[in-house]
Write a structure and sequence with these properties.
- This protein is an alpha+beta fold.
- The strands form six sheets. It has a six-stranded mixed sheet with strand order 1-8-3-4-2-7. Strands 13-19-14-15 form a four-stranded antiparallel sheet, with no helix packed on it.
- Helix 3 packs across helix 6.
- 50% of the residues lie in helices and 12% in strands.
């Protein structure tokens, strides 16, 4: 590593050099406010000999044509690109004014030592940015830039500098130009053939500017050590992953959610949910060894790309099958993001023809029932991630038995009374403040209630929530109701049975019930009786709104609720003694009597016997896949070191952890079977 403090002019005048922004770098992202800060730095140079603006770290390519050399910018691309934009603006103004100094500015911008002798910009970035930079340089500030380029941040920042410099006098322009050239940087040159690790240095840099995301760091980790040709091939795949994990928000701005996707992918692969701030670290720990080999890297990228398509399906409610697409839309509306890693496994099994459409739809409906019932009764959302993570142990092909697959999922959700019963739903729904729920949850509730078994697709986006008994009941409501009914309805104001959907909420307002039902001003048919919504079907028939009508309507809504978000039924045999690994059963305090694997029946006399026996069997057939996977060894409690007295000799030089209960061992086996794609049903367990 070589570090030098020098003027930006000295760096830009480096002979026979191109400054390349590698494809793995994030896109140019400095905004106008960043440019204003740079202008402030330039103006502060007045009367000063120097002003430090940061470092530029680059990787030397020592294996290249002697007539030119490339510096691959590792850090500092934002300020280097911005200074280049400023100089292009200055170059254009000088050239328009027929000022000889445009040639001096040009010398800092172009590399005339390239083979073709053309005016080639020294700074080379991605394809779109190159087009913009070269257009601006060669067109002398011509503002007739193609419309498709005007949204590019480089063009936007160029216009800022162009307007700023255009306002300056010739004398002031000369001062600003000299000030730019005097800006100080630290130039840090890396050389891989001398042991410099650009990725390690990149991770440790604490540069000014926008903080790198986990996906930025992961992209760099994947691409940085590749040569140009391989970089481009992998980068093309990475771009598709980014496209699949991008949404357009309400302000019509693109939001990249690649870091969130990789977090879900890690959860799917490891069955452990990474801490949000540790996504890059966890990714590196799990995949760095794999991506060192180019062929393994390509296979890994193909898998990432495939799962990013599942993520896209969830983000955008897209799917080739319309019925599955509808269920994905509901999950999207419910914002059940913790279920995404599990949904990956469901969509993947469908893609591989391992699950029929009806099973996929049923699973997606069951996810909604589980999450939505818990939301109604107020159960904690903190546990959801781990609950769903335990389910996609099953991405583990459970043989060819779809029935077992479904049973595994249902039992996993029913475990530990995590799935609220109909009785709990009925009790909580009577008093739940639906009106104060988050809008997306409230909209989801009414959308599904209205669309249930309705062949006509109903759009509720333009409808309002209406309180049947109004929020500010006037004296006529007291006059129409008994004290008992009035007081009862006051306590139920924001509950489900007192709410409905209407197109003109403000028109109904505080009117009494009959007026709300029959309202037809100017033949606009605004009342309940004219509504085609199922939610208003009972209201059309009522002559009053009292406790009696409220409770009748509540019963209808409750029955519809439990039909939509149903409680799964599973047949349990209390006498059952034999299970397979796919069965959800609590082994924590249970003695295991026998196991059957590969048609071999083995008696178990000690707690560790069954685990040790199974591991030895699997080691014999899958040794290389296990010992080369450090994360897998750790997960299943196998080590090359005897960490403490709880680790006992296992096989060859390996030790196995023994001080874990049977449930932990079962979970470790599920993880191992998943990684090796061994059907769960191939292991049978008999308890005492």
């Amino acid at each position: 590593m070589e570090a030098d403090k020098l003027k930006i002019a000295e760096f830009l005048q480096e002979p026979k050099t191109c400054f390349r922004i590698p494809v793995y770098q994030r896109n140019y992202s400095w905004k106008e406010e960043n440019c204003q800060e740079l202008v402030g730095d330039i103006e502060k140079m007045a009367g000063k000999a120097k002003h430090f603006i940061g470092s530029i770290v680059y990787l030397k390519d020592n294996d290249q044509d002697f007539r030119s050399k490339d510096f691959y910018i590792i850090d500092g691309q934002q300020r280097l690109t911005t200074i280049t934009i400023a100089l292009i603006a200055l170059h254009g103004i000088y050239k328009q004014n027929d000022d000889y100094r445009y040639e001096e500015v040009r010398d800092y911008l172009i590399n005339i030592n390239k083979k073709d002798k053309s005016e080639t910009l020294k700074l080379i970035t991605n394809k779109e940015n190159n087009i913009v930079l070269n257009y601006l340089f060669h067109n002398n500030n011509d503002h007739k830039c193609p419309d498709n380029l005007k949204t590019n941040q480089i063009y936007i920042n160029f216009m800022y500098f162009n307007q700023y410099f255009s306002k300056q006098s010739d004398e002031q322009l000369e001062i600003l130009f000299n000030n730019i050239l005097k800006l100080d940087i630290v130039s840090i040159a890396l050389e891989q053939d001398k042991g410099d690790d650009p990725q390690q240095i990149f991770e440790s840099l604490n540069s000014t500017g926008k903080k790198l995301t986990d996906s930025d760091l992961i992209r760099n980790l994947i691409l940085m050590r590749l040569d140009n040709e391989k970089q481009q091939e992998i980068y093309d795949m990475w771009q598709q992953i980014e496209e699949n994990t991008t949404i357009i928000n309400d302000k019509q701005i693109r939001e990249l959610q690649t870091s969130d996707f990789i977090r879900d992918f890690l959860t799917f692969k490891t069955k452990i949910i990474p801490i949000k701030s540790q996504v890059y670290v966890d990714y590196k720990n799990n995949f760095e060894d794999i991506i060192q080999d180019y062929e393994n890297l390509k296979e890994h990228m193909r898998e990432l790309k495939k799962f990013s398509q599942y993520y896209r399906s969830l983000l955008r409610s897209e799917h080739e099958n319309k019925e599955i697409q509808e269920q994905l839309m509901y999950i999207n509306k419910l914002k059940t993001t913790v279920s995404y890693p599990f949904v990956f496994s469901v969509l993947d099994n469908y893609k591989q023809d391992l699950l029929p459409k009806k099973s996929v739809i049923k699973i997606l409906e069951t996810i909604q029932s589980f999450v939505w019932r818990r939301a109604i009764v107020g159960d904690s959302t903190n546990a959801l991630g781990n609950i769903f993570a335990s389910l996609h142990d099953q991405s583990i092909l459970i043989g060819s038995s779809v029935e077992k697959y479904m049973e595994f999922i249902v039992k996993g959700l029913l475990k530990n009374d995590n799935f609220p019963t109909d009785e709990r739903i009925e009790n909580d729904l009577k008093s739940k403040n639906i009106y104060r729920m988050k809008p997306h949850n409230r909209n989801y509730l009414f959308l599904k209630l209205e669309r249930h078994q309705n062949k006509e697709i109903v759009n509720i986006d333009n409808l309002d929530i209406e309180h049947i008994f109004p929020q500010t009941a006037k004296t006529h409501w007291k006059k129409d109701l008994s004290d008992q009914d009035y007081n009862f309805l006051e306590t139920k104001l924001h509950t489900l049975a007192n709410l409905t959907l209407v197109a003109t909420n403000s028109s109904l307002g505080n009117k009494n019930f009959i007026d709300k039902r029959d309202m037809n001003d100017k033949n606009e048919e605004k009342g309940y009786k004219f509504s085609k919504l199922w939610l208003n079907s009972k209201l059309r028939t009522y002559d009053k709104w009292t406790q009696c009508e409220y409770e009748e309507r509540f019963q209808d809504l409750y029955e519809r609720f439990i039909n939509i978000w149903d409680f799964p039924q599973i047949k349990n045999d209390p006498q059952q003694k034999t299970f397979n690994l796919a069965d959800q059963f609590d082994y924590k305090s249970i003695n295991i009597k026998q196991i059957k694997y590969n048609n071999t029946l083995t008696d178990c006399n000690k707690d560790t016997d069954f685990y040790r026996f199974i591991l030895k069997e699997i080691f014999e057939n899958h040794r290389d896949n296990i010992v080369n996977n450090k994360a897998l060894l750790k997960k299943i409690g196998v080590s090359l070191e005897k960490n403490d007295m709880s680790y006992q000799p296992f096989i060859d030089d390996y030790y196995i952890g023994t001080r874990t209960n049977n449930q932990v061992k079962i979970n470790q086996l599920r993880y191992l079977f998943a990684e090796l794609k061994i059907p769960l049903i191939s292991l049978e367990i008999t308890i005492e």
